[in-house]
Amino acid sequence: LDLYGSEVSSNAATYYTMGLKGRFEETRIDDDHSLEGDSYRMLDIAGDALVDQEVPALKALNERLRDDYIVDCQAGVDRWNRQIAKSGVTFEFKLAHKAFNRHIGLFAQSHVSPDGRVISEAEWTKRHSDWLPTHEDRAYVSSLMEKPVMLPGQYANYIAPPRVGINQQPADFAYVRFN
């Protein structure tokens, strides 16, 4: 979520005004597209609480894009959860709160749990390895990828082979050529 940049950004406003940046599905949004005088509600942090604030919409473009991205991701997670439920497994995926583990913007200096609670540095230090990959986790994933698989029709042992290839290509289609 940090890739969208700071929640309030004069650079984003400038790029939007110059026609270099747009909102998700801009042509479907029913407004004058100038955003002059419009506002956008977004989260901020005040002490140990998350609070709503209203900011000029033009400066909140990054946050608007981040919110649209989260809505899109939630739709995917909802699809996965429906499939999981159909299989009879009692488990649900959940997206972490938008303020969780941020390194850019309003929440960069804060500690927020995946469920959106502002927590102390002590609690973060104690619990962050429950929520984020540890050094051991990263080492394990790296060990899975030690032997690259580059032959058409073969897959690394951590990837399930597809039932059918992209655009109905055969499973052994050479999508990538190494020279």
> How would you classify the helix and strand content by structural class?
alpha+beta
Spans of at least 5 consecutive residues with low confidence: none
N-to-C series of helices and strands: HEEHHH
How many strands, which pairing sense, and closed or not: the largest β-sheet? 2 strands, antiparallel
Helix segment tally: 4
Helix content: 25-40%
Strand content: 5-15%
The radius of gyration is 21 Å
Calculate the terminal CA-CA distance, rounded to whole Å: 36 Å
- Number of distinct beta strands: 2
* Strand line-up of the largest beta sheet: 1-2
Identify the overall geometry. globular
| Mean pLDDT score | 93
Would you kindly provide a brief summary of this structure?
With 179 residues, the protein is α+β, with helices and mostly antiparallel strands. 31% of the residues lie in helices and 9% in strands.
